[in-house]
Amino acid sequence: MSENQRFAGIELGGTKIVCGIATGAGDVLERTSIPTRGPEETLVDIKTWLEPRLGDTTALGIASFGPIYVDPASPRYGRIGATPKTAWRDFDLLHSIREWTALPLALDTDVNAAALAEIRWGAARGHDNVVYVTVGTGIGGGIVSNGRAVHGLMHPEIGHMKPRRLPDDDLDGMCPFHGDCYEGLAAGPAIGARWGKPLNELPADHPAYAMEADYLGQLAVNQLLTPSPTKQNFGGGVMNCTELLPMIRDAAARHLNDYLDLTDPLDAAEELIVTPGLESNAGLLGAVALVIDAS
Amino acid sequence: MSENQRFAGIELGGTKIVCGIATGAGDVLERTSIPTRGPEETLVDIKTWLEPRLGDTTALGIASFGPIYVDPASPRYGRIGATPKTAWRDFDLLHSIREWTALPLALDTDVNAAALAEIRWGAARGHDNVVYVTVGTGIGGGIVSNGRAVHGLMHPEIGHMKPRRLPDDDLDGMCPFHGDCYEGLAAGPAIGARWGKPLNELPADHPAYAMEADYLGQLAVNQLLTPSPTKQNFGGGVMNCTELLPMIRDAAARHLNDYLDLTDPLDAAEELIVTPGLESNAGLLGAVALVIDAS
Questions:
Q1: Distance CA A152, CA A75 (A)
Q2: Which letter, b or e, does each residue of A139-152 get, where b requires 16 or more Cβ atoms within 10 Å of its Cβ?
Q3: Which whole-number Å values give the CA distances from A10 to A42, A58, A94, A109, A237, in the listed order?
């Protein structure tokens, strides 16, 4: 693989789609953002922008919201699973792209892809065990263990675990499957429903911040106690409130209560829990990282 | 590696130590069980039994309770970490064994090792993504992802995540670090403190069973949503109450609430959550699997 080769990428998110062309060195040459609508209309929009730009590209990577069947051996490979976005349920994403390109394709969740991109070009360079969390319309998490994206029965869906609820939080929770899971209590829609405003319109000393940081700190601890990453990236729209990151670190340390001896210099909390180095390109470059890894 | 080679193994548990000799085919030739006391006395007991039997063995594997430093690059490699078993904290396990044998050594947590053994010889043959949970004096979990044991900052310590508490459970929780984490609410000591008896002395329709199954079902769901195993083995003393396993499956399905499409025949709950195929030899054979994998 040459760093001068050109790759196409699609990041399929719940709110918007990012399409782009990047080099094998991780330089984004062109990109566009398209609002996510129903699957058929959205795929027409993607094709309209991307197809004319594929001429000198080597492969096309697809980084999608989940759940999505990512095991090539599954009869459902490339289909969307039981998502709250009902119009997308069971949609055959991979097939609908295969119809208009013969390029090699690679597919994974947006967050697994972003974790791979952060390792290759971003804030997790040199790390083999990485978690990438996005906090926006929903909460998703990608995991890389021993250098490889984690899959199995499905793929990580860490936003649907349940946090310990805070006593002063009386929101029922917004997840149609689990009510008050992490996604149901701490994604953007939950913040809006609880406080009437998004987090970025509230002051940093508003109780919304401490509550959000506590839930996300619990999520970070669950990861430290499961895949045991040496780097956790927290991205997504809610994380644009920059006051939140140090509060998440404090909450994680409080919940962990010195259980792991984080005494090595590497292990300081400010190194363990960070924002993505690739910022809003993490998903798009994740899609590109998928095809580079596969080639 | 020949299946006729002989390997030594040590499984270091909170209650007892198992030492043994097994073949590369996973046949246990000899084994003994020693009560766990303080580290110095216990290591004398291990040496007394094992050293005379090492003559025709190829390597020695060590599968230990955690937290333990398993990264060979760490200056603390082979030392016990912040365990509730205070006499063992910071004990240099690997060094104390190296003092009396020059054999190649391999080290991992008892539960990571057991997961590898279940893949090699037990109930998880053919699986690459496996979780092994033990429910006894404590609750530990090992994870194999893409065929490799999961490590990172430390190693999986899933028993120290926090479940959603049941409203009719007023136990404070027994974990000195986290109070009411899974280990604090659902390991053997919590059952004893809550009901005055171990689970095997209570009838299966006693509320102790439903409560235990609910907590362990939540733990199983957390795993399905994180490393996404295709096989979860639940072992340890508490699981000797055979009525518990189907109740855990039911509780997991209830908490998951159809989020993952478990419709393929492979994915049926009775295949996903099982008892260990190697039964009480899982840890010892895990220690042997470690040295086979390392050689």
A1: 15
A2: bbbbbbbbebbbbb
A3: 12, 14, 11, 11, 18
Beta strands B148-149; A130-135: pairing state: unpaired
Written as one string, the DSSP assignment of B73-134 is TSTTTTBB-S-S-GGGTT-BHHHHHHTT--S-EEEEEHHHHHHHHHHHHSTTTT-SSEEEEE
CA distance A65 to chain B (A): 14
Which percentage of chain A shows pLDDT scores above 90?
85
Q: A58-103 pLDDT, tens per residue?
A: 999 999 998 999 999 889 999 999 887 889 999 999 999 999 999 9
What amino acid occupies position B185?
L
Contact B132, B276 (CB under 8 A): yes
* Angle of helix A110-121 versus helix A282-294 axis, rounded to 10: 80
> What are the DSSP calls for B43-82, one per residue?
HHHHHHHHGGG-TT-S-EEEEE-SSB---TTSTTTTBB-S
Of residues A258 and B262, which shows the higher confidence score? Answer: A258
Alpha helix ranges (H) inside B141-243: 182-186, 188-195, 207-224
The beta-carbon neighbor of B161 closest among A154, A178, A222 is A222
pTM for the structure as a whole: 0.95
Chain B touched by A103 (CB under 8 Å): no
For chain B, residues with pLDDT lower than 50 are: 263-266
Residue A261, φ and ψ in degrees, nearest 5? -80, 90
Q: Which of B97, B15, B85, B55 is nearest to B287 (CA)?
A: B97
B264 reaches A (C-beta below 8 A): yes
What is the percent of chain A with per-residue pLDDT over 70, rounded to a whole number? 96
A160/B129 CB distance under 8 A? no
Q: Minimal CA–CA distance to A14: which of A117, A138, A114? A: A138
- Angstrom CA distances, A64 to A11, A42, A195, A288, stand at 6, 13, 30, 12
- The dihedral region occupied by A236, where left means phi > 0, alpha psi between -120 and 50, and beta the remainder, is left
Whole-number Å distance between alpha carbons of B113 and A261? 22
Select from B155, B230, B264 the Cβ nearest to the Cβ of A152.
Answer: B230
Mean of pLDDT values over A142-158: 96
Alpha-carbon distance A67 to A57, whole Å?
A: 28
Nearest to A149 by CA among A66, A85, A216: A66
Question: How far is the C-alpha of A182 from the C-alpha of A160, rounded, in Å?
Answer: 6
Question: Which letter does DSSP use for residue A166 in this model?
Answer: P
What confidence tens digit (pLDDT) does each residue in B57-110 have? Answer: 999 999 999 899 999 988 999 999 988 788 999 999 999 999 999 999 999 999
Provide the number of CB pairs (under 8 Å) joining chain A to chain B: 156
- The span from the CA of A238 to the CA of A192, in Å, is 11
Alpha carbons A248 and A210: distance in angstroms, whole number? 9
Sign of the Cα pseudo-torsion (B51, B55, B56, B57, in order) = positive
